[in-house]
Write a structure and sequence with these properties.
Keywords: Lipid-binding. One of its GO terms (molecular function) is lipid binding. May bind long-chain fatty acids, such as palmitate, and may play a role in lipid transport or fatty acid metabolism. The protein has helices spanning 15-20, 45-54, 66-78, 96-103, 121-136, 141-153, 165-169, 208-225, 240-253, 266-272, and strands at residues 3-8, 23-26, 29-32, 35-38, 60-61, 83-88, 111-116, 156-160, 187-192, 199-205, 230-236, 258-263, 277-283. The protein is α/β, with parallel strands linked by helices and 290 residues long. The strands form three sheets. Strands 10-9-8-13-11-12 form a six-stranded mixed β-sheet, with helices on both faces. Strand 3 and strand 4 form a beta hairpin. Helix 5 (121-136) packs antiparallel against helix 6. It starts with a strand and ends in a 7-residue tail after the last strand.
């Protein structure tokens, strides 16, 4: 059995990671002022945020064409793969996964297994990397999916956004009405709800400094309660300086923990807006036996 791993561009994997783990990445389309771009192909993160500041209309995103996905899967079949695990952004923020579930049975020359990461960004990238490692070790699709399910259960995150306008206009915030009233005066904290997997705002904080401090308190409590080693991920939206400063502080608080940094690219930046920050964490998978 030869298993291929596919994900989408919101995994924000580096070129080196894509090549090292032989992961196929499908770009998500981003529409700005009527023009469609492919994330990571003809639209860099830097260019996106520049365009975001000057765009006349609210940017939007769409799903990769189904025909394009069929071509990707057929190409992998031609390369000798008989199975593909296709790992994609949360079905609660995109219909992409559900579209793949519909077409998977129609692909005849390769078995397609769509997988809902229930998350996005580099956290999803970690799932793709681990799946690739297991495939290389000869693990079965069932073994890989079972492992991913377990690792996915340990993922959590808190987003700090400058305002909710992008999420509200994009329809990605499930409880917007409870927070929209003071949207200009607060730094709302958001997360993916454990039960619904939808993005929800859960606290209103009066300043960014206080918001980051509150996130640190939440993380500290989790760190004390879990019975497995954690790794952390600091994510920034067009604010690498703030991301680096926060990552440095987290490292000082937890010197023995692996702290990495990533970014919100065009697709996720469309919904979170400029200057968003997040602290995410999950079980330290480098210590897992695959």
């Amino acid at each position: 059995m030869k298993i291929a791993i596919v994900t989408d561009s919101t995994a924000y994997l580096t070129k080196e990671e894509r090549e090292k783990y032989h992961i196929t990445v499908v770009p998500i389309p981003v529409i700005i002022d009527g023009r469609e771009y492919k994330e990571g192909v003809d639209l860099t993160t830097e260019a996106f945020y520049d365009k975001l500041k000057n765009s006349q209309a609210f940017p939007s995103t769409s799903q990769p064409p189904i025909g394009e996905m069929i071509e990707v899967y057929n190409s992998l079949a031609d390369q000798g793969y008989d199975t593909v695990i296709s790992i994609h952004l949360a079905s609660t923020i995109s219909g992409f996964y559900n579209s793949l579930v519909q077409i998977a049975p129609t692909i005849e020359n390769i078995k397609v297994i769509p997988y809902d990461s229930k998350i996005t960004v580099k956290l999803m990238g970690y799932l793709a990397i681990q799946a690739s490692k297991m495939a290389k070790l000869g693990r079965t699709p069932d073994q890989i999916i079972t492992y991913l399910d377990g690792l996915r259960q340990t993922i959590n995150e808190v987003f700090v956004v400058d305002d909710l306008q992008n999420l509200v206009r994009g329809g990605r915030l499930s409880n917007a009405s409870a927070f929209i009233g003071g949207v200009l005066k607060i730094k709302p904290l958001l997360t993916f709800d454990d039960k619904s997997n939808e993005i929800v705002a859960f606290e209103k904080i009066r300043s960014r400094k206080k918001a980051l401090k509150r996130v640190e308190e939440i993380f500290s409590k989790v760190h004390e309660q879990v019975d497995y080693p954690l790794r952390a991920l600091v994510i920034n939206g067009n604010d690498p300086k703030a991301g680096n400063e926060w990552a440095t502080k987290i490292h000082e608080l937890y010197p023995d923990m692996k702290i990495e940094q990533s970014y919100f690219g065009p697709t996720i930046g469309t919904h979170l807006g400029d200057k968003a920050l997040a602290l995410a964490w999950l079980r330290d998978f480098d210590q897992d036996s695959l």
